[in-house]
User: What shape does this take?
Amino acid sequence: MPFSTLRTRGRARRLSTSLAVAALPLLLGMPLMYWQAATLLQSRAAKSAADARTQLDAMLGDAARAAGVVLPLAGQACENVAQTLRSQVAVSPFSRSVNLVADGLIYCTSLMGAYERDEDTASYVRGQLRLMAGNAVTPDRAVLVYRQAEGNHGVLIGIDGQHLINLLQINGQEVSLQITVGQSWIYADGRVTATPPSGELEYATQAASSRYPFRVAAGYAPGVTLQYMQDHYQPQWLLFVILGCLAGAGSYRLGLRATSPGTALKRALEADEFIPYYQPVVDARTGSWHGIETLMRWQHPSEGLVPPDQFIPLAERLGLIVPMTRALMRQIREDFAERADQLPRGFHIGINITAAQCHDLHLVDECRDFLAAFAPGQITLILELTERQMITPTEITERLFAELRQLGVRIAIDDFGTGHSSLAYLREFRIDVLKIDRSFISMIDSHSLSRHLLDNILDLATRLQLDLVAEGVESAEQVQYLTQRGVRYLQGFHFARPMPAAPLFDTLRTPPTA
Ligand code: C2E
Ligand code: CA
Ligand code: CA
Assistant: This one.
């Protein structure tokens, strides 16, 4: 799998977890807000219906009172009682007309005096209420007629439809309200129909009067809950979004700062955050690049570039150095294989390995895979083994080094002079290269006693007839001193610092000279 894919995968997982966490307040808050809005709308609908019913009850109570006053007059001659009817209309706030009935005939009205028309008792619900779209006097204006009867005498009180419209409009500012009397419905716009409202209403409810035969129906147009949430819950939305952002960012940071250093290393390994830097090794005779040493860096998403001495010892202790080196070799191969034609033939690629990697034969397969990406002889792979960790010779190590040798892999002893590798040790493992530790190179600039120590190490190395690489070369004096004593390969800040692949290949075209 390519380097970029692995790295993106770790980041993508962290990102998707953080996004899920960020969405959590909204996901939990949404049903809560929905439930709150639904409860509120439901109780609001119920209250509007109940309020409208109470008000209509009061209107009809007023009509009933007026009817009670004039009912004893029914049967008397119209000219004697017409004035009383008119004064009742005047004192009753909602009544627009008062009519008298005798023997099934409306015979006297407050509006026109003597009159004659059949009563049509059957059209009154429970003999008490009738909702009409209009009547002979006002055909286009709704009227609610209240009837009170005793024996063959009766009173009809007309309540103007406008009172009902007002009542529906005042109580139905947010909810849709209708009054129904039997099969007649009156709407807030004054329409009177014989059918209930068409279509499904949300939170539909009804409040029936216990005193008169009417009900008030209430409900909302579909989609009201979401609309309500959108209109009224903006601060809550904002709060959930802010909480989500904070939680998401917190989770992202927590993801970066894994609980233990070991977990942090494992996470970083999965995210392919360990990347190779390359430091050139210069051939002092020609001034050209002999090869490079690979130095691991941790490209930490928040800490930046972490140097290896801060994580390699832990990785070694946890056994993670093995998969880390494997991943690093894959990246080095990708960096170099595609640009191998830019390299001088036999270019040395040095990789640091630890003693732990010499206890089985996996390294052979890894080196074989690595070399398979290059034409034979195109590069030379060098494994650098630090002198500080001695390897005990066993059957396995013997086979390991023999098989590596067969592959053409060369072995270098790193930090030479700092450990205790005996001549026997160097012979046992058939070492090819000695890398003289930079602590000796820095002695060149100091007084003669320390220089003497370096000279002894150089003598020993020369007698062993091994390739010598001086590490940590920082000055022209050091270059001169070392080359005079036959050290052929030099590495250090004097030539170049460790760098990523891109600048390495840029400088490779114009290598620095000593
Ligand atoms: P090392 O193998 O001895 O690598 C040389 C170290 O010296 C590098 O340090 C390099 O940056 C530094 N160096 C090079 N030239 C100069 C110079 O002129 N002056 C000074 N002062 N320093 C110079 P770095 O990269 O910090 O690596 C430290 C150590 O970490 C390495 O020492 C090596 O032992 C270990 N290491 C690095 N990468 C790996 C790896 O992939 N696997 C293992 N097992 N160990 C690694
Ligand atoms: Ca090294
Ligand atoms: Ca070294």
User: Anything to note?
Assistant: Residues 293, 352, 384, 414 surround calcium ion (ligand 2) (CB under 6 Å). Residues 22-222 form one domain.
